[in-house]
Amino acid sequence: MDFVNSSSVRLDLPPLRTFRVPRNPTIRIPLEIRKIPLGKIFYPWKANPAIFDLSMSANFVFTFAAVYVTSVLLLNRFNAGRNYKPWSISRTFVYRQMMTLHNAALALFSAWSLCGMLYTVYYHWLLARPELGTASSLHLVEFLCRFDQREYRILKPRMDGSRDGVIYIYWIFYLSKFYEVVDTFIILSRGKKSSTLQTFHHAGVILIGWVGLRYESPMAPPGATLNAFVHTLMYSYFTLQTLGISVSKPLKRALTIIQIVQFIVGLLFSSFYLFVTYKAPASMNEGVFPAGAPSESVSVFSQTQGHQYRRNDNSTMIRCLGDGEAFPLVVAGSYLLVLIYLFVRFYIKAYTVQPGKVRP
C-alpha cells in the first residue's frame, strides 16, 4: 500500500522482531546547544548529569509512581472519613495565591516547551534537509523516522547540537510531570476525591515520558509537542479559574474534547510509525549490508538495528522502526487507550444530559 509512490515511501506490515523487548540502551545526556540561534532562550541552563541520571533510573521512576499512587489512595480514604470536608489550609489567602502562581507558571512553562520544541525541530530540519527547494516528502519521512541523525541515509547529519536541543526540552518537559502531581494534591486538599482518571493520568504520563526518552523514540517529541499545546490551554483555563474569572461551560466542554482529540491523534500518529518504510538510493547505502548478502532478497536485514532490507533493484528500503523499537509505542498506546476510555466516560458523565435529569 503506497501513500507517496511505489519507489519512495510505502506502508508495509512490520516484522515480529520490531516488537521485541529492547535491551537496556545507552542514554546520552543532551549536549551544549547555546550556539544555536535563540539557544539561550530554550537552553537556560546546562543539563546536570546527576539529575539526568536520576530521572532515567528505573528504580526512581517506578518508586515515585508507586509512592504517588499509594499516597493518593490513602488520602482518598482520609477524605472519605472526614465526609470530604476541605482542609483548613485550602481556605487561606496564601493558598489561593499559591494556586494562581502554580497554574500560571505551568501555563507559561507549557507555552515555553511548545515554542522550544517547535523551534528546535524546525532548526534541526533546516540543517538536515538538502538545499532549499529540493526537500521532498521522502526527506520529511526520514527526518520523522530517524530522529537520531547518526542513522541518516538521505539527510545530512549535522553535529551542531540541534537534535540535542529537542531532546533537552523534551527532558525538561518530562521532568515537569513529576511536579504536576501537585494537581492531584490540590484536589485532595479541597476535600475532594482523586478519581481514577486523575490518578492514572499523572502516574502514567511519567512512565511513558520515561520510556520515550530512555529509548530515544522518534515518536516522543511529536507527542510531547502536542501535549505542551494542550497544557498551555488547560493551565491558562485553571489560572482564570483561580483568579475568579468565570469560564463558560461550552469552553470547558471544548477543552475536554481537545484533550480527547490529543490522545486519539497521538495514538494514530505513533501507530503510523509501525508501517512506514522508505527507499534510499543505492549509492547512499554502500557498505550497509554484510558481504555476500543476496541483492534479490527482500528479507535480508542489516546487522545494525533491523531497519534496512534490500529490494530486487539493489536499492534499500528502510523501516521506520527497527528491532525492538515498537516497545515505546506499545507502552504509550496501551496508556492512551485507557486514557481515551476514561476521558470519554468523564465527558459523558459531565456534559451529557442523563434521562430524568435536567442540565443545570
UniProtKB/TrEMBL annotation:
GO biological process, one term: fatty acid elongation, saturated fatty acid
EC code: 2.3.1.-
A GO-annotated cellular component: endoplasmic reticulum membrane
Main localisation: membrane
Topology within the bilayer: Multi-pass membrane protein
Catalysed reactions listed for this entry: an acyl-CoA + malonyl-CoA + H(+) = a 3-oxoacyl-CoA + CO2 + CoA
Pfam families: ELO
Membrane-crossing residue ranges in chain numbering: 60-80, 101-122, 167-188, 200-216, 228-247, 254-276, 326-348
Organism: Penicillium chermesinum
Family listed: Belongs to the ELO family.
Subcellular location per the Swiss-Prot or TrEMBL entry: Membrane
Record-given protein name: Elongation of fatty acids protein
Keywords: Fatty acid biosynthesis, Fatty acid metabolism, Lipid biosynthesis, Lipid metabolism, Membrane, Transferase, Transmembrane, Transmembrane helix
InterPro entries: ELO_fam
GO MF term set: fatty acid elongase activity
